[in-house]
Amino acid sequence: MNIVVGVTGGIAAYKSVQLVRLLIKAGHEVTVVPTEDALRFVGLPTWEAISRNPVTTSVHDDVARVRHVALGQGADLIVVAPATANTIAKMTAGIADNLLGTTLLATEAPVLIAPAMHAEMWRHPSTQANIETLQHRGVRILGPAVGELAGGDSGPGRMVEPEDIADAALALLAPKDLAGLRIAISAGGTREPIDPVRYLGNRSSGRQGVALAAEAAARGAEVTLIAANIAGDVLAGARHPSIRIRQAGTASELALAMADAAETADAMVMAAAVADYRPVEVAHRKLTKESGGIPVIELVENEDIVAGLVRARREGQVIVGFAAETPETAGDEEELLARARRKRQRKGVDLLVVNEVGWERGFEAGENEVMVLGRDGLVTATASGSKRAVAAVVLDALRPLWTAGRTSV
Ligand code: C5P
Fold it and tell me: CB under 6 Å to ligand 1: residues?
């Protein structure tokens, strides 16, 4: 697809070099349209080299091909990063005194902007009013992030990181093949309290579940994300108008939240790592060495949430489970598959996503490698790569089950 990246005059312009690289790496054709001021921060040859396309700031170049409107007409998406207060004001007013301005006026493509400026300029009522107007017109505003700014100040005004801008841009280009799907996804790991300060937990970061939520929302689904102890920076990946986040700390809270979501969801994905056991009793005061002897924590089994969802399943509802296996328990690949088949059958899920985990694999990592088992016990898909790429494959496997359910209800 054709993406125009508008770059305006802020120090964050250097970070947009990485943004352009990421968009090209994702297979898109990128044309960079800098403003004159932007070129004071990063020069024209850099933009041409990195985008592999000619770059100009002027409406008077390439007049034969009416470049000043052609770029906007031919764009599938326009990203402005960084977007200065000045350019934001010009966009709001429809001022077209440079190539970026004419391109923005001549387009019907979605527009995403990543503001970057000093905190005072961001907070100024005129900037705030402009942002509100642009939002009303459907422009997607990403950030600004809060943090250190040029000149040593800090506050809201930092451009969002290029990786996050690229994700948001690619999401806008994604096909909306899950529009109408209501999906509930559990993510993270439960913590079963022992006393007010200690718990039994696991290493699940929630990254795979958050990636599933983000991918589903990007493809048009309405998502409820049930988050079990996910760190703020990971959960930030699920910031999207179509994602509703509910917190659930323990297995019992997660069970309640999922049962609640199940009433309206078309599909349920149990990506959370749920503790199989919890302490029979929770001490109301912190256990100390003075309590005497080495404590023995008696455990009781938690309910199998996914099995409960399957029992209460409405017609056409699709249910997906996850199975994390350590290779040591699973033995070889065949044994892993056999265990996964038994698990799928026992749990009664439509799809079981199987991944190998270990000290260095699966948990907390950015990448994952999975096998998706279908109702017939066959491997319907395999995926490896970023958790977002894995999420896309899992949703590809889910989609036909949902549409089949829709036609039979
Ligand atoms: O049996 P195992 O724990 O490997 O199964 C994993 C799958 O079952 C995951 O989808 C997990 O979310 C779900 N699960 C559950 N309730 C439990 C334990 C696991 O729903 N108590």
Answer: 251, 270, 272, 274, 276, 302, 304-306, 321-323, 343
Strand ranges inside 275-402, DSSP E: 277-279, 299-301, 318-325, 351-356, 367-373, 379-386
Taking 90 as the threshold, does the pLDDT of residue 90 lie above it?
yes
Distance CA 220, CA 176 (A): 5
Take atom 6 of ligand 1 and give the residue whose Cα is closest.
323
* Residue 202 known to be catalytic: yes
Are 221 and 271 spatial neighbours (Cβ–Cβ below 8 Å)? no
Mean pLDDT for the stretch of residues 52-56: 92
Give me 323's structure tokens.
């199975």
Alpha-carbon distance 409 to 404, whole Å?
9
- Distance of alpha carbon 77 from alpha carbon 355, whole angstroms: 35
Residue 296 is given by DSSP the state -
Q: Pocket of ligand 1, candidates 304, 344, 352: which has the most ligand atoms within 8 Å of its Cβ, to mutate?
A: 304
> What does the pLDDT average to over 202-229?
95
Give the HSE-up count for residue 261: Cα atoms under 13 Å, Cβ half-sphere.
32
**How many other CB atoms are there within 10 angstroms of residue 227's CB atom?**
24
How far is the centre of ligand 1, averaged over its atoms, from the C-alpha of 306 (Å)?
6
Which of 7-21, 76-90, 99-113, 286-300 bottoms out in mean pLDDT, i.e. has the lowest? 286-300
Rounded to the nearest angstrom, the distance between the alpha carbon of 304 and the centre of ligand 1 is 6
In the predicted model, is pLDDT for residue 270 greater than 60?
Answer: yes
Domains delineated in the chain: 2-173 (3.40.50.1950), 182-408 (3.40.50.10300)
CA of 272 to the centre of ligand 1 (A): 8
Which one from 53, 86, 98, 202 is the annotated catalytic residue?
202
Q: Which residue has the higher pLDDT, 285 or 127?
A: 127
Helix (H) or strand (E) holding 233: helix 232-235
Q: Provide the pairing of β-strand 77-83 with 140-141.
A: unpaired
Q: Does 409 score more than 50 pLDDT?
A: no
The pLDDT assigned to 407 comes to: 62
**Selection from 193, 160, 211, 144 nearest residue 355 by Cα:** 211
